[in-house]
Write a structure and sequence with these properties.
- The chain is an alpha+beta fold.
- The chain is about 40% helix and about 20% strand.
- Helix 3 crosses helix 4 (about 65-75).
- The chain is flat.
- The two termini are about 45 Å apart.
Length: about 150
């Protein structure tokens, strides 16, 4: 067996004394665990870079040091409010964004939706445009006109 191949089913059975089944992680649970690990790592790294230890962070949050220690090393869920309060205690704020993971309609097209509102117009006129465009173009917009602009590759 090489380091890159893993165990064969027969080798696993011989090693463990019984048949072994592969464990397939739930993709949603894995995504949540990765995000939580990232949040905890960012908080711990920021505290360390700022010279803020567990005791000082606990004092700033008005909680017991053991609670901060558990929160930073736990594998369990964390409330968003806890992450926000920890960031504020470190004089930081979070920036979030959602990435669109949906596949393109086809290799050559992607769905586009656009709603434009003129904030300077008291009647709040709006224009809605939706459809598909080739991926080599970006939809640009001025109030009253639409144009296509080549996207950078």
């Amino acid at each position: 067996m090489s380091d890159t191949e893993g165990l064969t089913p027969a080798e696993a059975q011989e090693l463990f004394g019984a048949p072994v089944e592969a464990v397939v992680p739930d993709p949603q649970e894995l995504e949540v665990a990765l995000v939580l690990r990232t949040i905890r790592s960012l908080l711990a790294e920021t505290a360390e870079a700022d010279g803020v230890g567990v005791n000082e962070l606990a004092r700033r949050l008005d909680v017991a040091p053991s609670a901060v220690s558990r929160m930073l090393r736990s594998e369990g869920d964390m409330r968003v409010s806890t992450a926000v309060l920890c960031a504020l205690a470190l004089d930081r704020t979070w920036e979030f964004r959602l990435r669109d993971n949906r596949p393109a309609i086809s290799e050559n097209q992607r769905e586009v939706g656009l709603n434009i509102v003129d904030p300077g117009d008291s009647s709040t006129a709006s224009v809605a445009v939706s459809g598909t465009i080739a991926p080599s173009y970006n939809l640009g917009c001025n109030i009253g006109s639409l144009f296509r602009v080549p996207m950078a590759a």
